């Protein structure tokens, strides 16, 4: 592979990962089938199957593609689509077109294997899901649903920030059920897909019978990203009826969202109460040990040659903690570079250079100020910052104050002395909060949920 092809592949790895992170469904349907060909200046030539495919990309998704190619190592790349390139998904047999063409083809296969590893990692089963204290409850509930659909935890509602494994568990449930019985009708769809089908039947067919009949034949309904129902009154009414039908017939419903039902704006109260009547489990970003296990699993299943040693994996696990999807994206970037560079083991310095933008985003996320945390905590509990800094010790103020101090130590680089100064307290008070808040969260579900909600709000800042 010449330098132009190598650069094109490396750039496309970054862009493809961004597209996948933004919309998994669109990535699989369209962008996964694109092949990086060459880089000329700052224009990337991308291979697509035919003119029709190219026209769909240009008409519908040009803005997404342009955005994904922007700010890669400080450059905004343009692109050109070149029809006549079918996606290569399997290793070809020995070709007669010459050693150079065969080598290039194998290199394309290698990069595609790395890019697609998230989808082929045993197809998102329970066995490939790394369990830790932050997601153990959701994992156990998902397994219980797969073992006895409709009997426990109905509905099961999994929520958490993007990229922490909610979709993985959804696919794991579907995979387990399909393996156990071919007679169990499982329907797994994103909320966007459900909305598209609903509006197609409503507007094009002028009839919702086929939409309703399809769902009525289903035994287990799995819907990803139900927060997309927000503000869709007609669809909410229809889904309310579908929900009641499933629930009354002991058919299993599993939903995922980036927030709790009560946090979804413009959601009908009846539907909100239905979502809350079963099991609600939060999936949080994994701890360091789980992140390291995920990377080790990816290395063993993806890399033929060990170009990423334990030190490098530890560096990634330590420095990328916001979500699993970004962690995998960083691994893919490094693995693809190592695949083409032929330089052997990657160094920490090379990783830092290749992952400048991702590491900067992670650092920015960690650079929250104590004042931001104080404001978010005060707002959540209906208080003023002055209440947190004052002398009042009533429970309604003392507990939020401890939570704010606890999160200030967890989410910033400030010492206990610095946090104490910001709260007009001494460092001993901060140390007390660090010990007290986890104990309160383990014994009081309301406090645990409050901390979880505040963390999610802060992650969006």
Features:
single chain, 461 residues, alpha/beta, GMP Synthetase, Chain A, domain 3, Rossmann fold, Helicase, Ruva Protein, domain 3, five-stranded parallel beta sheet, 23 helices, 8 strands, globular
Could you explain how this protein is built, in words?
With 461 residues, the chain is an alpha/beta fold. The chain has 4 domains: 1-108, GMP Synthetase, Chain A, domain 3 (2-Layer Sandwich); 136-282, 3-Layer(aba) Sandwich (Rossmann fold); 287-365, Helicase, Ruva Protein, domain 3 (Orthogonal Bundle); 370-459, Chromosomal Replication Initiator Protein Dnaa, Chain: A. The chain is 58% helix and 9% strand. It contains 23 helices and 8 strands. The chain has a 5-stranded parallel beta sheet, with helices on both faces. Helix 11 (233-248) links the parallel strand 6 and strand 7. Helix 5 (99-115) packs antiparallel against helix 15, helix 18 packs antiparallel against helix 20 (395-411) and helix 20 crosses helix 22. The chain is globular and about 70 Å long. Residues 89-104 and 110-122 have low confidence and may be disordered.
How would you concisely characterize the structure shown here?
With 461 residues, the chain is an alpha/beta fold.
Q: What is the alpha-carbon Rg in Å?
A: 24 Å
Distance between the amino and carboxyl termini:
42 Å
Q: Which CATH architecture of the largest domain?
A: 3-Layer(aba) Sandwich
Q: Estimate the strand proportion.
A: 5-15%
CATH superfamily of the largest domain: P-loop containing nucleotide triphosphate hydrolases
Strand order of the largest sheet: 5-6-7-4-8
Number of discrete domains:
4
Q: Main sheet?
A: 5 strands, parallel
Round the mean pLDDT to the nearest integer and report it: 83
Main structural class? alpha/beta
At the first level of CATH, what is the class of the largest domain? Alpha Beta
């Amino acid at each position: 592979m010449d330098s132009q092809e190598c650069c094109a592949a490396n750039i496309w790895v970054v862009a493809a990962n961004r597209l996948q992170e933004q919309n998994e469904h669109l990535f699989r349907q369209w962008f996964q089938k694109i092949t990086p060909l060459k880089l000329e200046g700052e224009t990337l030539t991308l291979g697509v199957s035919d003119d029709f495919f190219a026209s769909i990309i240009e008409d519908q998704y040009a803005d997404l593609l342009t955005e994904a190619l922007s700010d890669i190592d400080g450059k905004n790349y343009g692109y050109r689509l070149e029809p006549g390139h079918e996606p290569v998904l399997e290793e070809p047999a020995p070709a007669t077109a010459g050693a150079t063409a065969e080598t290039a083809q194998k290199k394309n296969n290698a990069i595609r294997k790395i890019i697609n590893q998230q989808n082929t990692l045993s197809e998102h089963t329970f066995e490939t899901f790394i369990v830790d204290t932050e997601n153990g409850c959701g994992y156990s509930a998902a397994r219980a649903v797969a073992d006895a659909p409709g009997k426990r935890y109905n509905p099961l509602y999994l929520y958490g920030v993007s990229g922490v494994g909610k979709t993985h568990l959804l696919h794991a449930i579907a995979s387990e059920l399909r393996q156990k019985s071919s007679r169990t009708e499982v329907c797994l769809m994103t909320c966007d897909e459900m909305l598209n089908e609903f509006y197609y039947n409503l507007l094009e067919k002028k009839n919702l019978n086929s939409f309703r009949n399809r769902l009525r034949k289903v035994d287990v309904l799995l819907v990803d990203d139900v927060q997309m129902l927000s503000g869709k009154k007609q669809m909410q009414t229809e889904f309310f009826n579908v929900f009641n039908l499933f629930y009354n017939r002991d058919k299993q419903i599993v939903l995922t969202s980036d927030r709790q039902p009560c946090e979804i704006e413009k959601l009908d109260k009846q539907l909100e109460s239905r979502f809350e009547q079963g099991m609600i489990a939060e999936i949080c970003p994994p701890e360091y040990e789980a992140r390291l296990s995920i990377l080790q699993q990816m290395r063993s299943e993806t890399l033929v040659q060990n170009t990423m040693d334990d030190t490098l994996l530890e560096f990634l696990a330590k420095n990328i903690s916001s979500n699993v999807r970004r962690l995998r994206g960083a691994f893919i970037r490094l693995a693809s570079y190592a695949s083409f560079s032929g330089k052997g083991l990657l160094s920490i310095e090379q990783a830092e250079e290749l992952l400048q933008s991702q590491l900067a985003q992670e650092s920015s996320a960690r650079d929250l100020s104590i004042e931001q945390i104080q404001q978010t905590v005060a707002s959540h509990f209906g208080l003023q910052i002055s209440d947190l800094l004052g002398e009042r010790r009533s429970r309604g103020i003392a507990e939020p104050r401890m939570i704010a101090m606890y999160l200030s130590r967890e989410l910033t680089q400030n010492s206990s002395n610095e946090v104490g100064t910001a709260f007009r307290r001494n460092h001993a008070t901060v140390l007390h909060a660090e010990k007290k808040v986890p104990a309160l969260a383990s014994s009081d579900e309301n406090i645990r949920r409050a901390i979880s909600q505040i963390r999610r709000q802060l992650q969006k800042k």
